[in-house]
Design goal:
216 residues, alpha+beta, Elongation Factor Tu (Ef-tu), domain 3, six-stranded antiparallel beta barrel
Length: 216
Amino acid sequence: MFTGIIEEVGTVTSVIAGAKSSRVTINANKIFSDLKLGDSVATNGVCLTVSDMTSTTFTADVMHETLKYTALAGLANGTKVNLERAMAANGRFGGHIVSGHIDGTGAICNMKNDDNAIIYTISTEPNITKYIVKKGSITIDGISLTVTHVDERNFSVSIIPHTLEETVLIERKIGSIVNLEVDILAKYTEKLLLTTSKTKTSASKITPDFLTRNGF
């Protein structure tokens, strides 16, 4: 589990493409203080497993499914990426619950100055925006952010200077593709409501007439 608080920005040093997967090596600094083989690192919000490492780089295998549904397919040598290690049990919970399992991608369609902040508007699909609420949480490229506006096709977030300076958002432009993970609580709530609704529907079919016709 992650929190969406980026620890540092790393740099892709190698991308080896396979038939449908790839092997990515990333250079960084801070995250190596206690990183081990098999650990999870959110890379632009995508949970990757460390399969090889040196004192300053880690390598991860990116499977076909991940390349198909995230923006990691666009990684190349020199690409900057947001990095966060999995949350320690005794760590501070500064963002929100982030699984590292991307729900889809969006495209930056507008960037507007708002005093000392910048409002980013992201265009995405209705199957993503249905889980987004104003003042709720959203993860963009692994960054925990608060929603300021949402409609059927777009949502907006306000980015403060510190977030810009410490993440790859400062390099994003209109048209850039970003990874999105909605608040997992929204998906659990939907599943609970659907299950409850089906249960009520099934129960409503048991009427006095039904019982009589079946010998009760």
